[in-house]
Amino acid sequence: xxxxxxxxxxxxxxxxxxxxxxxxxxxxxxxxxxxxxxxxxxxxxxxxxxxxxxxxxxxxxxxxxxxxxxxxxxxxxxxxxxxxxxxxxxxxxxxxxxxxxxxxxxxxxxxxxxxxxxxxxxxxxxxxxxxxxxxxxxxxxxxxxxxxxxxxxxxxxxxxxxxxxxxxxxxxxxxxxxxxxxxxxxxxxxxxxxxxxxxxxxxxxxxxxxxxxxxxxxxxxxxxxxxxxxxxxxxxxxxxxxxxxxxxxxxxxxxxxxxxxxxxxxxxxxxxxxxxxxxxxxxxxxxxxxxxxxxxxxxxxxxxxxxxxxxxxxxxxxxxxxxxxxxxxxxxxxxxxxxxxxxxxxxxxxxxxxxxxxx
Length: 359
Prior knowledge:
alpha/beta, two-stranded antiparallel sheet, globular
C-alpha cells in the first residue's frame, strides 16, 4: 500500500520501557494501547548494566494478552549462548503466533563481563562481528527444522522425520554450534532482526543481517544519508535493499499536548541531547514532523520512545497516529497476523530445504 505522496505507508513502533516497573500488567496495558493504534511493534529494552526484569520473559507474558502488535525484546548476544538465545526467541515467536522480533545488542563494559566471569570485555567492533555471527547461526538453527519435519504419526510412533532435520555445524572465533535446534522452525521462519545502528560499529552487522534498523539522528538529511548507507551496504552483501526498513529513533515528550512544539523541537527537527534526539511539543506538530521526514525520503518510519510511557503513548496513539491515519500516511488496520506481514517482509525460505544443506 502507498501513501498519497506516492511512498510506501509509514512504519511506526514504540518503546514500552518504564522505570522500576516489574509488574506485567503495566506492560500489557501499554502494548494493548499500541495495538489499538495499529503500530507495527513495541520494544522492551534490556541490559546487563542495570537491574530490571528480563525483557523476553516480560513479552512472553504480554504475548497471549495481545493479538496483532509485534513484540521485540532486546537480546544481548555477548556472554550468552547463541543456542539458548535462538531457542528463546523462537519460543516467543510460537507463543505470540508469529509476532516476534529481537533487538540485537552487545555488552561492552568490563563490569558486565565480570558478572559472567568467562572473558574480559572486548572492543565494540569485535562484539558486533560476534553479534552478526549469532544472527547467522540463529537463522541456521531456525532452518534446521524444515517446516514439515514434525509428522506426529501415532501409528508408527514417529514424531519427527529425521531426514528433515539438519546439523548447522557452525564454527566461529568465539563459539561453535552443531545443531539442530530443540525448537521447531518458528511461525515466521526467522523472527524479525532489529539493530540500532546509530553508532558506526553496528552498521556492517545491520546492513548484513537486520530486517529493521533504528538510527537516532536529529535531522532528515542525516537520516536520509544513513538510510542510503545502510541500503548500499545491504546490496553489497547480496541483499535486496528494499527488504530493509530504516526507522528514525526519537524520544518524545508530549506533556504539553495542547501547545505547539517548543523552539528547536518541531518543524525543522528535534533537539539533539546526550541521550539522542528529543521532541517536546504536541501531537499535531509531531505528526507534521513525521510526515515531513517521510516526504523527504529520510526514513521508512519512526521508533518512538515516550518520556512518560502511559501519558505520551496515549497522546501518540489518540493524537499523532490518528492524524497520520487521517492523512493517509499510516494504516488503520493490520494487514496480517505476523510482524513480517506488518512490515511488508516475506517469510524466508528454508536454506537447507532449498539447497539441501548439511544433514
